[in-house]
Amino acid sequence: MKNENKMNYDFSNRIVLVTGGTGALGRSITSAFIESNATVISSYVVDREIESLKKDSKPILQLVKADVQKEDEVEKLVSDILGKYGRIHIVVNVVGGYLGGKSVWELDEKIWDRMMTINLKTAFLISKHVVPQMISSKDGKIVHISSKTALKSSGYDSAYAASKSGLIRLVESLSEETKESNINVNCIMPNAIDTEANRTAMPTADFTKWVKPEDLANVILFLCSDEAKVITSAAIPTYGIG
Ligand SMILES: NC(=O)c1ccc[n+]([C@@H]2O[C@H](COP(=O)([O-])OP(=O)(O)OC[C@H]3O[C@@H](n4cnc5c(N)ncnc54)[C@H](OP(=O)(O)O)[C@@H]3O)[C@@H](O)[C@H]2O)c1
């Protein structure tokens, strides 16, 4: 969808990796970077209908299949991009997922492991493999997607809340480790996003109170711009004002 409120950033000559770039939020982020003239590599894992994203885009979008839960696939993803473009300037890691509804004593170990893997391990692996070339170039921006739930659980979401909370500590640690190298590492903390999946899961909710993917994309582009060069190690509340 065209983002009418987009700031006029110019990311020409910037190579941007959006992991999970074909999901609900990822599509908006991918589109916003394309509209800002970035070269975007958008990764996904499930073969699905991605033709509309391809159709809407200029030839500066490349879609790559990679399961970022697996270190060898992350390594290959990063080295293939570096082989083709020479640099990755910006990484927005949108990969994540939610499984909730169970108390701690009802929670299956597999769900716990799934949340830790999809929300936290993926962020670790992506960060681990993109940072060395950013340190060499003394230039880089990384944004992860945490959640409001990272700060305060409402119950019945322990695995998700703990994984998104852990992500904030990962961001802080990486930020401290890279701040001398002119690398900004931040995350945003959305509340419910206005996605088709959420509308289907919560049909009686007031959708007008949910934050729009395009508005989150605007915050992310700002964090990846020179205007935000003094922001690092932040977990930014992006709850909307509804
Ligand atoms: N939706 C919300 O209300 C909400 C609220 C707070 C935070 N968040 C966070 O925001 C982010 C985006 O949420 P969303 O609603 O846009 O989710 P989504 O539509 O399910 O998108 C998730 C993306 O992650 C990708 N992905 C999943 N497993 C992967 C793997 N192993 N390797 C590579 N990619 C993988 C998916 O790829 P495929 O398309 O190939 O499956 C998809 O592109 C997530 O981190 C989520 O936790 C969402």
Please render the helix and strand layout as text:
Layout: E1 15-19, H1 24-35, E2 39-44, H2 51-56, E3 61-65, H3 71-85, E4 90-93, H4 109-137, E5 140-145, H5 158-178, E6 183-190, H6 196-201, H7 213-223, E7 235-238
Parallel strand pairs: 1-2, 1-4, 2-3, 4-5, 5-6, 6-7
Helix pairs in contact: 1-7, 3-4, 4-5
The chain binds NADP nicotinamide-adenine-dinucleotide phosphate (NAP).
The site of NADP nicotinamide-adenine-dinucleotide phosphate has 27 residues, from helix 1 and strand 2.
Textual characterization of the structure:
This protein has 242 residues and is α/β, with parallel strands linked by helices. It has a single domain, classed as NAD(P)-binding Rossmann-like Domain (Rossmann fold, 3-Layer(aba) Sandwich), CATH 3.40.50.720. 41% of the residues lie in helices and 16% in strands. It contains seven helices and seven strands. The chain has a seven-stranded parallel sheet, sandwiched between helices. It is globular and about 45 Å long. The structure holds NADP nicotinamide-adenine-dinucleotide phosphate. The site of NADP nicotinamide-adenine-dinucleotide phosphate has 27 residues, from helix 1 and strand 2.
Measure the end-to-end span.
22 Å
H and E order? EHEHEHEHEHEHHE
Global morphology: globular
Specify the helix fraction band: 40-55%
Assign the CATH topology.
Rossmann fold
User: What's the pLDDT, averaged over the residues?
Assistant: 93
What is the CATH architecture term? 3-Layer(aba) Sandwich
Q: What is the radius of gyration?
A: 17 Å
Unreliable parts: none
| Spatial arrangement of strands, main beta sheet | 3-2-1-4-5-6-7
Give every kind of bound small molecule, once each: NADP nicotinamide-adenine-dinucleotide phosphate
